[in-house]
Amino acid sequence: MAALRQTGRRDQRGWRLRGAAVLVLLVLGLGASGCSTTADPPVADARGGPGAVTEACCAEPERFPPLLVNVIAPGAPVFGRIAANITGRHGHLHEDEAAIAHLMGVVRPLDIVLVGAKGRMSHNLIPGAFAHVAAHLGDERALRRLGVWDDPAVKPHQEAVKAGAKFIEADQHGVHLSTAQTVFNVDRVVILRPTGPAARDRAGKLVDFFSHVGTRFDFHFNADDDTCLFCAELVNHVIPEARLPKRRIYGRTMILPDEIASAALRGQAPLKLVTYVRGTRDGWTIGDADQLQADLEAAWSR
Question: Could you list the residue range(s) of the whole structural domain that residue 100 is in?
């Protein structure tokens, strides 16, 4: 286990160095124009209880010099698309039928999905264990049961849902529907279930999600501007009752996936942990709240 953690740390350091190099090259390129396979993710030993999540998780998220970030900001769409297309390997859960069957067996409409894939450059430029957020919409049967299948916002997407697109996410392509195979092509998955007012208005929230398909992606990751949306911002925009934690990073309001998980464990957000799946090259396991807490703290302790 210790050897695995050391391998994961070396791998992440290598990704960070490559990421910094790409950032510098992009800055130089943008200024001039005027405008590998990775190792397993680090695995921590479970310890403590859900109430013991400390500031070790999600502290000091500004890992790159602010000046560098400000210089590259005008070219964020260019950089974002380049980083999104740099992939070292598939996620460990990719095409793992048993793992995906487990996830699809427990996920419900309106569930929030956090994922991490250390084989992707974009996921290594965001600190922590998780780097992306999606939401589950459900299949035709679920949407019919909730009475929204024939809603004007859902109708244009009926064929896509029938073909397996049961999730919604925001990435460099904008807000769009995705299949389980796409969303779960990662190393780690956390499924969180909204409780309280959001759960009581599940049908209305799902319709709202469908109505956002086609919205532009927010390459500047500014949660104060809802004319375009990044992944966690999309979920926060549709489900504000989930009280996703926000913070100022590089002068803009952002929402970190790890902080969403931490808030759920602390009881600071009306979100229930449904499952936590962890994949390695040797297979996959299901972790509990203690394991998720330990992995979050391990990811930030580096």
Answer: 2-301
Provide the 3-class DSSP secondary structure of residue 189.
strand
The count of domains in the chain is 1
Q: Provide the β-strand partners of residue 273.
A: 192
CATH of the domain at 95: 3.90.1720.10
**Chain-centre distance of CA 65, in angstroms?**
23
- Rounded to whole angstroms, the Cα distance separating 129 from 154 reads 33
pLDDT per position as a tens digit, 210-246: 999 999 999 888 999 889 999 999 999 999 999 999 9
Prediction pTM value? 0.77
Burial class (CB in 10 A: 0-12, 13-18, 19+), 299: buried
Q: Each residue of 114-162: pLDDT tens digit?
A: 999 875 555 556 778 999 999 999 999 999 999 999 999 999 999 999 9
C-alpha torsion angle, residues 218, 170, 72, 301 (rounded to 10): 120
From CA 110, how far away is CA 135, in angstroms rounded?
6
